[in-house]
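Lab notes, practical 5.
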Amino acid sequence: MERQSNVPELLAPAGNLETALAAFDAGADAVYGGLAKFNARERAANFSPDELGKLLRYAHGNGRRVYLTFNTLLREEELDEAAEFLAELARLRPDALIVQDLAVVELCRNYFPQLVLHASTQMGIHNSAGVAAAAALGIRRVILERQLTLGELRRIAAASPVELEVFVHGSLCCSLSGRCLLSSALGGWSGNRGKCKQPCRRSYEAGKRRGFLLSPKDLEGVDLLPEFRRLGIASLKVEGRLRGPEYVWKTVHAYRMLLDSPEDPAVEEEARQLLRSTATRRPSSGFFRREEWKTLIDSERPGVFGVRVGTVGKVSRSGLSVRTEGRLHLGDRLRLVPPDGGEGNTFSLISLRFRGADTVRVRAGVECFLPGEFAAAPGFLLYKIGENGFDFSRRASTLPAGRQAVAVTLRCSATRWEGRIDGVDGCWQASVDFAPAKQRPLDAATVEAAFAAGVPEPWEAAPVHAVVEGAFFVPSSSCRELRRSFWEWAAGRLAGRELHPEIPAALEKFRALRRNPPKPPESLPLEQDMAELRIPAFLPEGELPKWRERISQAYDAGVRRFRIGGIHGLELLRPFAGVEIIAEFPLPVTNSLAALLLREEGVCAAEPFAELDRRSLSALRTASPLPLLRCSGPVPLLVTRAVLPAGEWRDERGRRYRVEPGAESGVTLLFAVGKTPESVDGVEPFYSNEWK
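Output from the prediction step:
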C-alpha cells in the first residue's frame, strides 16, 4: 500500500562551508558533503574535520542536518586509515554517513555503531530485495539507483522497511551507479574512488554517427514532486557537490518554494524561472519516465554543463583572446573545455581587459582578453557555470568552532524528571508538581527541543531522547528552569572527561583484528562441476517474482550453488538453507573487510572488483577471509539503461569499443576492444594494460 507523506526532506550538495551556508539560507533541510578522502567527489573543496565541526554546530543549532559522504571503495592498504577517519567521525557525530563499500558497513556495525548509515546510490540498489538486504545490514536509508522508472519506484516504496532517498535535480550519469569503469580504464581515474574524469561527456563515433553519445540531459524533477510526496519518499536530493553557492542557492530555493506551496501555478512558474537561470544542460525527467529514454542522450550538445559564453582565439603566455557569446563579469565562475568535450578546467574570472583597458564586465559579441595562465588552445569553448554575487565566504570564516556531541536521555512525569548522559555515571533528578493538562499536554518533541538549546560550551546535545509519562501541562518558564538545572549538573560531570571512551577502545579492538586477522582459506572449497544458477546483477523490480520462482525451482531440483552480483541476491537466497553463494563482479570486493562481511552473510567465495591494480590485488589475496576467483568473462566498462547505438565505437584518440545488449534485463553494455588482461596470482585486473 502506498503511503501518504509529510513534506520530504530537501537535501542539498555542499562542496564547502560557503555552499553549505547558501543551501541552508535557501531552505535546505540538510546538506551532504565529504572529507578530503574517501568520498566520491574528491575534486570538490570538501571539509576538514574542524570545518565539519563548525558546520555541524551551525546546522544543529538551526534544526538542520549534515550527512557525510564516505562513499568510495577502499583498498586493503587503506583500511587502517579509514578506521581512524571513522573514529573521528564517531566523535563529531554527523547525522548520517553515506557509504558504498561493505567494509565501511562492517566497520561501523562492529566498531562504530554511533554512526547512522545511508546506502549511497553507488551501491546500485535498484529493487525491493536490495533495499531489504541493506536494512538487514543495519542501514537506515537507501539512496536509490538513478535509473529507475516511476513504476519501479512505486513498488519499491510500498515494500520498503527503511527510508528512501531519490535524486530530484542535477547531472545524470549515463551508467548505472557503481558500474562505470570507463574513467578508470582510460588511466586509473576511478569514479568509484572519487576521481572520475567524465569520459561520458566526450565525443565518440559510432558508424555514421558522431557526437556526445554517452552524455545525458540533466534531471529536473519539478513535475515529479507530487508523486514523490504521495509515495512517502523521505528525502529529495539535489546533485552538485562541484557546484558553487549561486547554483545551489537558486536550485534549493526553487524546490523549497515548490515543496512549501504545492499546486500554486504562480509559485511553480517563479521556481521554473529560477531553475532556468542556472547553468545546466537541457532538462529532462531522467529515467523516471520510460518514454523519455530514447531522447535522454543529448548527443548534439557538448556534455559540459553551463552556458556557452565564448570561443578562444589566440593563446599566449599572458592570457587568452576570447570572442564572447554572452555577458562576462568579474567574479564569474568559468570553465574552459576542448571542442570535443571532456571535463575542462574551472576558474574564477579575476581579471578582464577590453580594448586594452581593465574592465569589470563585457557584453556578448566582442573581443576581450583574459589575463593569466590557462591550459587551452585556439578553438576551446568558454562556459559560464556560476555568476558573481553569491559570496558566503565572510560568513563561513566567522562560524564558531564545533562542539562535542553528547547523547541525552530524559524521562519526564508530572512529579519527577530524570536525565542521563551516555558515558557519564549518575542521574540528574528533579522533583516537580505539574497539573493534568486540559488542552496542551507536554510532548516528547517539546522536551527534546528545549533541552537541545542552552547547552554550555564546548558541548552540544545530539541526540536528545525524551519519554513523557502521562498527560500534564508544563509552563515554558518551568521547562527552561529544569533545562538550566540539568545542564548545570551535566557541566560538572563532563568537565575533564573523555566523553567517548568507547571510541578509542573500539579502534584498538579493530587494530587487534588487523594484527590477527581471520585465517585466509588454504584452497578453494568448491566443486568445479557443481550445477549453479547466476542471479543477475541488475534485476528490475518487475522481474523479482519470476526470479524468486526460478530460484525456488532450481533449489527444488537440487541446485545449491548460486552466483550473485549485488546484495539483492543475499535477500533472494535468505529463505534457502545449505546453499553456496559466490559473490561475483560487480558486487564490489576490494578489501578483506568487505569479504568478511560477505562471509558472515553466507558467501563462500568472491571475485575481486575489476578496478584493483596489481599491488591491491595481491594485498587482498593475502588478507581475504574468502577464496578469490577469476572474473568470469569480459568486464563491461559501462552498463546503462539508456538507448545507445549498437556496434563498434571509437573515441577521439582512436580507441575502440563495442556496444551490445546485455544478458541482464534491459541494459546495454560497453566493452573495450583489444585488451589482454594480465594475471596476478590467478586474478585478472582489467585495466592494467593499454589498448592494443
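Observations recorded by the TA: The two ends are 55 Å apart (CA to CA). The first helix runs from residue 17 to 26.
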